Amino acid sequence: MNIQMHFLTSTLVVLTQWLQLSSAQQYILTPEQERNANRTLSVGYVVYDGYTILDVFGPLQFLSDLSWPFDMNLSVIAKAAGPVHSRPPLHHGPDGMAMDMSKMVDAQIVATHSFETAPPVDVLIVPGGVGDLTLLEQKDRSIEDFVASRLDTTNYVMSVCTGAGFLARAGVLDGRRATATKRTWDHVTRHGKNVTWVPNARWVQDGKVWTSSGVAAGMDMMVAFLRHIYGDPVVNMSVNEVEYAPVVDPNWDPYAVIFKVSFPP
Ligand SMILES: *[C@@H]1O[C@H](CO)[C@@H](O)[C@H](O)[C@H]1NC(C)=O
Ligand SMILES: *[C@@H]1O[C@H](CO)[C@@H](O)[C@H](O)[C@H]1NC(C)=O
Ligand SMILES: *[C@@H]1O[C@H](CO)[C@@H](O)[C@H](O)[C@H]1NC(C)=O
Ligand SMILES: *[C@@H]1O[C@H](CO)[C@@H](O)[C@H](O)[C@H]1NC(C)=O
């Protein structure tokens, strides 16, 4: 009850401020942003065992908050519908050593759809995670095949962290600029053809494709993306309510230095 009242009040505050801003013409929405305010944005989040928790739930926090003033729906898409684990499955290190991570805590998410049953989406997001190593070892290309099959019919394709590796292997990044986590830069950037990998970037937008650097950078990319879609006023109010200070400069990136990344690797 109290929470609902709070939500109602804060939404009214948001909308009032938005109207005030619009009427004062301090911030003018583009025609596309006005259209977006009236339509349902359909979001598809791809998940797999060993996904990185914040790569999924960081951006989802902002999507979820903005789905109150705007209409959105969410499909969580995996190889099979049902629970998907953050705990990385067994895989091997570069030296061939078995990596048994079964002692790690597990946060599960429930996939609502399989790749076969996933509905059309406007936005497709692929998170990073150690689970990509297991899929690579098993030569499992189901995520890449799914993403490639949806490229033409999806308005926006996004990745967080090592998620860029899936996009690169799916051919989504061919001839494009992109970025990825600096922590495992060489691992991700050896995929794809003629990709201009940008080391000094928090995120990169190239047309309909948005890629972010490691883990927390996905939240900054999502905030920038939501501003692009809906304009600043409502998004800023929502981000302030989360008490999150997003990086707004896509070129801000201390991590390329920390992880000694340059391109070509
Ligand atoms: C959006 O909806 C509002 C209210 O329903 C309407 O006044 C406005 O013309 C619509 N804008 C667009 C671009 O369709
Ligand atoms: C999301 O909304 C769109 C547009 O209304 C609709 O076509 C689609 O079926 C919805 N998807 C889900 C998963 O509810
Ligand atoms: C590589 O991509 C660039 C665009 O980034 C394009 O201009 C160029 O023709 C591409 N080269 C090849 C060999 O595909
Ligand atoms: C929204 O917030 C960002 C900082 O997070 C700022 O750069 C931008 O100017 C703000 N926009 C408006 C309309 O207040």
TrEMBL record:
Residues 1-24 form the signal peptide. Residues 101-227 form the DJ-1/PfpI domain. It comes from the Eukaryota. Keywords: Signal. Gene3D superfamilies: 3.40.50.880. The keyword Signal applies. InterPro entries: Class_I_gatase-like, DJ-1/PfpI, INH-QAR. This is Isonitrile hydratase. It comes from Cladorrhinum samala.
